[in-house]
Amino acid sequence: MTLPLAHVGHYLWVLYLVPVLVVIGGIVRTIAAERRRKREEGDG
Amino acid sequence: MSWLPFAHALAAREDLPVPAWLFAWGASIVLIVSFFALSVGWRRPRFEEAHWRPLGAGASRAITGLPVQALCGAIGVFLLGVAVYAGLRGTEAPDRNFALTFFFVTCWLGFPLLSVFLGDVFRPFNPWRAVGRLAGSAFAAIAGQRPAHFAYPEKLGRWPAAVGLVAVVWLEIVYGASGGVAVGLDPHAASVAALVYSVYTLAMMALFGVERWCRAGEVFSVYFGMFSQLGVFAVEDGRLGRRRPFSAATRWATVPGSAAVVIASIATTSFDGASEGAFKGGIEKVFGWLTDLGFDPTWALRLADTLFIALCCAGVALVYLLGVRGMRTVHGAPPLVKLRSGFAHTLIPIAFAYLAAHYFSLFLFQEQAQFTYLLSDPLGTTTTDLFGTASAGVNFQLVSATAIWYVQVGALVVGHVIGLTLAHDRAVAWWSDYRDASRSQYWMLAVMVAFTCFGLYLLSVANA
Asked: Which chain A residues contact residue B442 at CB under 8 A?
């Protein structure tokens, strides 16, 4: 069986974008967690 | 996997142990690990002071003394003259004419390499500086006083050099790519451009002073000088000395327009790598629209390339500015204007890494031509053989495609780790709380990962 992947190479750039998105996602998550913790400490 | 009918990029580089995109993931992991290591172990600034120490007085005098300076200047003027003459009178074939390889490979790529390891070596060889200084001395001897100059507008900073840098690359890869054929720039056009630039530079030196113009507006002095900030050797107050590596870079970007110079360097290198790969489809599409509008095909291609160079500059600037804006959100951050110039030096190692990665193989192969047949037969007329090497060829088997790929990946990773380190060092110097400094660098980590992955993507597509 041959899969219809002849033009999958045109979307290869997505694989190079993954690390950037992972890092940005990590940063946003960390910052949100820090802000939440500070808010909770302030309330407490 | 041979049953998968992959077209284009995915079919390439079967000699690599893993797909090219996995190198981008690996490089990103290296950066993330480096970031955490810096956060844990790097708590005080180490590069803010240069710790410059003079070398032996004898060696210093020999290298920085007037006889050597005059000799270097004379060599610079002579080589510029040879290249201009070869371009004007030699063959129109770019690969057989001394001028193009000398201007755009030996000098444009060789001086950044030499500058990083040996310091600002272009300064003594700068032909325009040599002529300007000689003219200034002659004026002083005749008139009995030093020539008076206008005050250079400080706000202009290095902006003339940044614009000039884009113009040099535009001339080489946009104007030279006329008609879409792989002939490159016409040597005659390169020589005329060199003459026009010489007149412009000497006029600016007459207006603002030789050393002032070299520090701010002379494209090649500013560009090569930028890379020399990473190195160990430097001349201060006329004495040769050693300093802590990378430390000089921390003060380089305080002049307005410095960030534009380093951004232009990364952007133009990116465009050169992408024009035949990642951007090829887009350029062809814009070219088609412009020719449909009635543009001449040569100028339609030049306009399309110009648009993509501008997009590259805007894209690189945007990524950097997003990183800076992210840092501004962290508690205790300095004003945005200070951050914008204060972290621009962290891009210098990246600019060098991009140069090394994109042009390593070109430099390796073209320098064989430069020091064999182009040196023996500079006009390319096949009638001269000055050093008996006119019939030599280029050995393209010198390094394998896989070895070139590893050098490219290595250059990008090392350059970005150094950039990250410089950014972290600046952050711990500027933020009073060490934890805030580390937090501010989340954003520079994102910038570095983005530039690394973008660089590797361009290379993988260009090599495919």
From this structure: 27, 30-31
